[in-house]
Amino acid sequence: MPHHLHSTCPIASVLDIIGDKWTLLVIRDLALGKQHFSELQQSPERIATNILSNRLTRLQESELIERFPSPVYSGKEAYRLTSKGKTLKPILKSLALWGLKNIEGTRLPDDVSL
């Protein structure tokens, strides 16, 4: 078993990587096209800067995201999902659909479609 795995169970191993609220919300925002730290921080859930920095580092270490030179701001970095990270999109869609169906009062933002 690799040293970073706490369990050989695939569900437990996935949860070790993406099993907290903030990590999934960062992945959601990157999947929706946000690229910059400031954009990620301004999401409605208002993630704290230290938590955002930590989650970006963990996602990069897990090869789910990558940093690249910002196409908008000279000298700044941006983030995007890797090919591996993009494979999480159907999971996010399933979570969203489940929430819409089973949690009263949930809705998609006007600019998001499934």
Task: Summarize the structure in words.
- This protein is mainly α and 114 residues long.
- The protein has one domain: Orthogonal Bundle (Arc Repressor Mutant, subunit A), CATH 1.10.10.10.
- The protein contains six helices and two strands, in the order H-H-H-H-E-E-H-H.
- It has helices spanning 10-18, 21-31, 37-41, 49-61, 83-86, 89-102; strands at 65-69, 77-81.
- A two-stranded antiparallel sheet has the order 1-2.
- Strand 1 and strand 2 (77-81) form a beta hairpin.
- The model has no long low-confidence stretch (mean pLDDT 92).
Features:
single chain; 114 residues; mainly alpha; Arc Repressor Mutant, subunit A; 49% helix; 9% strand
- Look at the structure and name the CATH superfamily: Winged helix-like DNA-binding domain superfamily/Winged helix DNA-binding domain
Taking pLDDT < 50 over at least 5 consecutive residues as the criterion, the unreliable ranges are none
The CATH top-level class label: Mainly Alpha
Span between termini: 37 Å
**Overall body shape:** globular
At the third CATH level, what is the topology name? Arc Repressor Mutant, subunit A
Helical content (DSSP H or I, runs of 4+):
40-55%
Domains (count): 1
Query: How many helices does DSSP assign?
Result: 6
Annotation, overall tally of beta strands:
2
Strand order of the largest sheet: 1-2
Largest sheet: 2 strands, antiparallel
